[in-house]
Amino acid sequence: xxxxxxxxxxxxxxxxxxxxxxxxxxxxxxxxxxxxxxxxxxxxxxxxxxxxxxxxxxxxxxxxxxxxxxxxxxxxxxxxxxxxxxxxxxxxxxxxxxxxxxxxxxxxxxxxxxxxxxxxxxxxxxxxxxxxxxxxxxxxxxxxxxxxxxxxxxxxxxxxxxxxxxxxxxxxxxxxxxx
Length: 179
Known about the structure:
Thioredoxin_domain; 179 residues; Thioredoxin-like_sf; alpha/beta; Glutaredoxin; two-stranded antiparallel sheet; transmembrane helix
């Protein structure tokens, strides 16, 4: 039986292998939330799941009315994500002093007219921990999330205030309302 000894303590290779598997599994479970493009079964599989989820919701009209939320001090994103009935959530990270953020705010807010979506406006000066957690380096930054099998999956990240890019993402990842 092969052993690995560290000082006066010895472990069998079997035990070391099991411990390594637990460690790898732990990190994989946490990393796949933040790196969906690299650690899932592939981009095509993910896109099929997203499209199927959106089509199912649109066909069954299984969505709530649109909501626009300015995340107040003390509020949490997890509370918003747990309470929403929509399949899509879009986060906009901005600041009151940011001119491009203020310019695109009306456009962002008006998406509730066209799409069944939950929009969350996050001020990075108030929510510094969220800014760091979501690695916000440019303002505004839009994060598009779609719910797949009770998990919120990041589908697109847009930095900057290009309305065309943001509109394309809304068309791709949000359920349109009935006309």
